[in-house]
Amino acid sequence: MTGVGWFMAIILGGIAGWIAEQIMKSDMGLIMNIILGIVGALVMNAILGMLGVIPPGGWIWQCIVAIAGACLLIFLWRMISGRRTAA
């Protein structure tokens, strides 16, 4: 997460992971939400970087990028594992 410290990265990761969990209707838990949010932000920033798109700095934009990345990771996990929902 560009431009934020480690502490804020953990907080933003947790928020982004929780929002992605709600959007994708999955049940991951707090620690997995934080991991999904941080890894999702890293993955989505890498994808955007390869496409030549640089999102504006700031924690709001990084949170949006992290949410999109976390949703992408949940989607990919479901494709690989074959699960639709976590009911």
TrEMBL record:
UniProt keywords, alphabetically: Cell membrane, Membrane, Transmembrane, Transmembrane helix
Highest taxon, organism lineage: Bacteria
Membrane topology: Multi-pass membrane protein
Cellular compartment(s): Cell membrane
Spans through the membrane: 6-23, 30-53, 59-77
InterPro entries: Transgly_assoc
GO cellular component labels: plasma membrane
Family, similarity comment: Belongs to the UPF0410 family.
Protein name per Swiss-Prot or TrEMBL: GlsB/YeaQ/YmgE family stress response membrane protein
Record organism: Hansschlegelia zhihuaiae
UniProt lineage: Bacteria, Pseudomonadati, Pseudomonadota, Alphaproteobacteria, Hyphomicrobiales
